[in-house]
Amino acid sequence: MRVVFVCTDPCITNLYTLNEKGGSGTLLALLNLSYFLMSANCEVSIIGKVKGNLAESDRDIKFINMDNNIDIISYLKSNTTDIVVIVGHALDLITESQYKLGRKVIYWAHNWVDPKLLQRISRKKLLDKSIYVSRYHFLKSWKRCLFDPRFIFNSSYIYNSLSNEFYTRRTLNDEDYIEFAYLSYPSRNKGFPEVMETMRKLTSSGINIKLHMIGDMRLYDKSLSNENDCLQFMLDKNGDLEDFLILHGTIGKIQMNRVLDTVDLAIGGLTGSETFCYALAESLAKGIPVISLAKGGQIDFIRNKKNGYLVNSIDEIESCVREYMSLNENENKKMEENAINSISRFSIKIIGAKWLSLLNKVANL
Known about the structure:
The protein is of the alpha/beta class. 35% of the residues lie in helices and 20% in strands. It has 13 helices and 14 strands. The chain has helices spanning 15-21, 25-39, 69-78, 92-95, 115-123, 135-144, 192-204, 225-231, 253-259, 278-285, 317-325, 329-342, 348-363; strands at 2-12, 43-50, 57-58, 61-65, 83-87, 104-109, 129-132, 155-157, 178-183, 209-214, 245-249, 265-267, 290-293, 308-311. Strands 3-4-2-1-5-6-7-8 form an 8-stranded mixed sheet. Strands 11-10-9-12-13-14 form a 6-stranded parallel sheet, sandwiched between helices. Helix 2 packs across helix 13 (348-363). The longest helix is centred in the last third of the chain and has 16 residues, at 348-363. The chain is elongated, with a radius of gyration of 21 Å. The two termini are 14 Å apart. Residues 220-225 have low confidence and may be disordered.
């Protein structure tokens, strides 16, 4: 089977570069799946803004540096392909051109999009299937379509994947402070102001903390304007960086794995905007319990007081932290085991097999 992925944002790198220098969850999901499909004897190409001096082929995946819709359509017309998978923001390849690609087309919805728009595109025979990245993402989108039964005939969900063996178990030290990790870029949409407000409340209540901030706007190859907008939340009353804050910036998966070795709790997803939330899934993969809002794609894999804590408002977070601090060694180990086990179903072997089954079905429609 010949599969072409079209991903115009974020920029495309290979898995080696992602592990060394970092990248977004969308890119991680795309590369995990691409390499799996190659191992299943599929021919795989990725079209997008290729970053750096990638060889045209990497473990036989063909990287094509192209982000203009006209050029992409021309390429797809002139090359034999069984299925085109349009990823995330590349949806405008269809919505703007209204061009029927003459191939089986899947839209991989990593972000929140108008599901009614996808339904209209499907009815025009421009799209064969829409795939959401969590059950929550799927159900919320179906609800926006007023539970139209036609939705389930051309839509489904498959979770994003992890190479679980990559993440080594954390090694906690007996310190007199709690180490938190925030794994995303600092933006209002990602809930960074809420995270900083929470950290200040904890310090004011007498809890000693450190907050590792892993990620910046380079995850998405965009300007730092959004990050500068949130700079004010990193500063104390004197205009200095908060003492508890440790800035790592965008780092590779290998270095991130090391930074997380001593982290007690991960925090994120406090605005309900996540469709999946790779940041929290990766934390769980290391055995790190997580704290998040009980709204968003992450609720599919967070079990309150089992592998983390789900709250209805940030005002509940302090009590969760104190409850975590009161756990004995056996209870802590149990939560760690629960964390690791809870994301085993996201193994690329399991998720890849689901994608392969889907691709075969769509190819035979």
